[in-house]
């Protein structure tokens, strides 16, 4: 009966090792399962609330989607412009000057239109 006792002892040792391994592994896995379940529950609840809102207020939902689309488009356009860099160029400042003949006289200078041959 020595072989049978050794087999039973060995089986009990293996079961104990498997149990220890499960005890060590399950808390981390169990937390992942709980977090995953909570996330799935939150998504389902959010989907139900959103579908009820859309059914009751289709105009507001459409406006919200359009606004989100416009914000996305503006952000994408701004990112592309920033990627292209600033526009390089030059500018000159032109100071406004008063007309020489009407300065200080108080009269507004009147310009006559020239007539063309067509008009």
Automatic annotation (TrEMBL):
Keywords of the record: Membrane, Transmembrane, Transmembrane helix
UniProt superkingdom: Bacteria
Chain spans, region Disordered: 82-119
Biased composition, class Basic residues, residue ranges: 109-119
Residue ranges of the TM segments: 58-75
Name under which the protein is recorded: Uncharacterized protein
Annotated organism of origin: Thermomonas aquatica
């Amino acid at each position: 009966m020595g072989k049978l006792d050794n087999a039973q002892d060995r089986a009990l040792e293996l079961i104990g090792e498997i149990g220890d391994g499960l005890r060590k592994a399950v808390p981390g896995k169990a937390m992942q399962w709980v977090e995953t379940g909570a996330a799935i529950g939150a998504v389902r609840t959010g989907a139900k609330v959103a579908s009820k809102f859309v059914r009751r207020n289709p105009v507001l939902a459409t406006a919200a989607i359009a606004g989100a689309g416009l914000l996305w488009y503006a952000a994408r356009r701004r990112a592309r412009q920033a990627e292209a860099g600033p526009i390089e160029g030059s500018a000159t400042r032109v100071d406004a000057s008063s007309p020489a003949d009407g300065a200080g006289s108080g009269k507004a200078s009147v310009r006559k239109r020239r007539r063309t041959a067509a008009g």
